[in-house]
Amino acid sequence: MSHNFIRRIQENDNIQDIFAYVLDNIYRTGPNKTSDLEILTLLRIYHPDEFTEHLSKILYFIGIFYKHNLQTTSLEEVIFGQYRRHIKKEYDHYYTPVQAKILYSIQNKRCFSFSAPTSTGKSFVFLNQIKKSRGDVVIIVPSRALINEYLIKLDYALQDKSINILTFIDKINTKKATRNIFIVTPERCRELFKLKLQFNIDLFLFDEAQLSNEESTRGLLFDGMVRRCYKNFMNSTFVFAHPFVRNPEAQFVKNNIEFNTGNFSQFVQKNVGQIFFYHERSSGSFHHFGIDKSVMGNFKVLSPFDPIEAILIASGSVLFYVSKASIKNNKVFTEFQDYIKLCKEYSDEIVHDYIQDLTEYTGGSVDRNKDYYSKLISYLKRGIVIHHGSLPLKIRSILEKYTNAGLCKICFATSTLEQGVNMPFDIVYLNKLEGSKPLSVKNLIGRAGRSTIDYKFDYGFVVVKNIPNFRNIMVQDEELETISLLDVEEPEKDDDYNDFKDAILNETFDDELNLTENQVRKLSSQEIFSIIGQLLDSIFEGDDIISLETLNEDINEKHSLYDKFEQIYSGYLGRELSHGEQNVFNTAIKIIIWKVHGKTFKNICWYRYSHTSLSNLRRLHKHNHLVLNRLQAKWYTECPTEFPNKNLQAYNALSIDGRNILAKDVDYDFIISDTYDYIDKLIGFKLSDVFYAAFIKYYDQYEDSRAVKLAKYIKYGTDNERYILLLRYGLTFEDIDVLDDYITDVSEEEIIVKDTIYDLTEKQIEPLRRYI
Description:
The protein contains 35 helices and 23 strands.
C-alpha cells in the first residue's frame, strides 16, 4: 500500500483499497492512530456516498456503541454487537469499551489514575458514577470555569433536591439534604478539613489532574491536598483524570499512594475524527496536511474550500484561540472581520434573554454610541462569543449556555478553554501557539468535533498557521513529574514559597484562617494590633462603617484609611510596598470599601468606567467634537498577573506609546474583566484571607466586636447573619435583593419561603430551586 493518502483521497485513487486499509487497522487495534481518524474524516468529506456504505462498520469498529440505530450487516459487526450488548447489560448504558474500562476501574480499585483524549466521554462516566454514589462526592478542578461547567451539568442531571450541589465546602441544608457534591478548586478544598468528621465521602475526583505538574504554589497545594485527603479519608475512592498524559501512574509515585490499592491506564482511543489545515495568511489559501508524514504525505495539499467559510455557511461553529492582549486591543476582530461579516444577526426573541441577563449583571449597553457599550454583549446578536479567564463566572455561565444552545457561530477564546471546559466546535483555529504548553494545546484541539448520539461519523477541523511547531507538539509525549515539588529542595525560592511548602508538609496550615502558622504569627504582632486599633477607630462611626459620602468629602481621611490597610499588609509581607504595588493595592482597597457599602459588580464597573472615561465631563461637551477628540482618559491601574511583586512598575493601562487614549475610547469590556480580576484574583485569593485573619486575631486578643464586624465585611461583604447564611447557600447579593422578602427563615438546617415566592418568574426563583 503506497502512502500520500491525502492526495490519493482527493484524486479518487483506489478509494476502496483505502477503505479496506483503514477498516482493517481499526478492526485490529481500535481507533488508536491519529492518521486512521484523519483518513476516515477525509473519506467522509471527499467521498460521502462510499462512506455511507461503510458507516455501520466504522462506528462499530471505533466502539461508538452509544450511537442510535446501529445496524449489523456483517459477521464482524455481529461480534462487536455482542460486546455492545454485554456492556449495556453490565453497566446499564451503551458505553464505549474505554468508558467501560474506566468505570470498571473506578468501581473495583480504591485509586485509579488514567489519561485519555478529550473526546473519550469521561464526563458522561463521571456523571453516572456520581449519581450512583451513596455518600458525599468531592470534585477538585483547576479553574472556576470548570467548576461552572460541572455545576451546570450536575444541576441539570440531578433533580433530586435531597442532594446538595455546592461550589464550596459547607454543612448546610441539613434537614433536607442526605448527601453533598462539592465542586471546588484545590484552594477551596482546604476547607474540607475543618468539617471532615461531618462528611461521609465516597469519591474524590481530581479532574484535569495535570495541575500537579505546575511549578507554583498551586502545584504544591494540589499534591498536598492529594496526600491529606488520602490519609484522612481511608474509605474513599480516588480518581485522577488527565488528558494525553503518558504516565498517569505518576500520581501514585509522587504522592506516596500504594500501588496495590490502585490501577492506572493510558487510553489513546478517540471517538471523533479530525483533519488539519494550514492557513497561508499571505494568499488566504488553506492546505491539508497530516501529522504522520509517512502515512498522510510529506507535503501540504491545497484544499479546494475554505473550511471556516464552509462551516459558517453550514451553520456550524468556529473557535479562534487567541491571546487576551489581541482581544483587549481589538486586533483579532480586525484580522477575522471577513468571517465576522458572515455571521448575520439573530432575531431579538432568540437572543433577548441572554443579552438582558448580561446587561442587568454588567450594566453594559449594546448601543455603540452610548457609554458602557459592550462589544461582548452586542456581538451575541450575531452569534459571536468572547470568552477569557477574566470574565465573571456569571457571564461565563450565560455564554456557555448560549453556546451549548447552538447559538455560537464564532468564539474568540483564550487559554481559559484549555482546562477542560466542554464547549465543542466544528473548527478550532490556533491563532497563537507561542507560550502555550503542549498539553494545553492538545487539550484545546480536543474541542474540534462534536460527539453526538446520531447515526453518523463525527469529526472536526483544526487550522494552524505553523505546521512544524504544531506537528512537534502533536507527536510529543507528555509526562508528569514523578517527584513532587513538596519533596524537592528549592533554596532559590522566596521565603513565602518555602513557608507555604513547609506548612503543607508539616500540616501546620491554619485551616480556619487559610494561612500558614508563620503568616498568622506575623499578623498577631503588637505592632499590627496597634494599627488595627487605629483603623477601627477611623473606619467606624459608632457601630456603623463610615459612609462613602464622608470619605469622598474628606480626602485626608480616605488616604489615612488606605494607609492603615497598607501598613497591615506591609507588616504581613515584612517589607514596604513598591510604588507600582501601592497603586494596585489602593485600587483594591477602594473596591473593598465599595463592596462593604453594598455596591454590586455593576455599580463598581460603572464607577471605574465613569472615572477614567470622564463620562460626566463628556456629557457636558457632547456636541463639542473638538473637545471630545482631545479629552484623554484618566490614569488607570490594571490588576497585575502577579501580586505582591516588588518589581511591579506603575503604569497606565490606557496608554499607547506614552499617550493616554481618548476618554471616549475607553473599552467598557476591559473595565468589566479588570474589575473581576481585582475582586476574584486579587481580593478573593490574596487580600481577603490576610485581612480576615488579622481582624479575627485582634478580636481574640481584645474582644472588640468591631474587628469581627469588619472581618465579616471583608470575607462576605456584609455582617448581616441572615445574608451570610444566604451567601453560604450560594446566592449572590443580586439574588438576595430579589428573594429576601420572600424568605421566612434561613438556617444551616433549611430555607423556609413564603407561598408568594411562586409569583416570581422561574429565572428569579432559580437560585433557591434546590432548597425549596
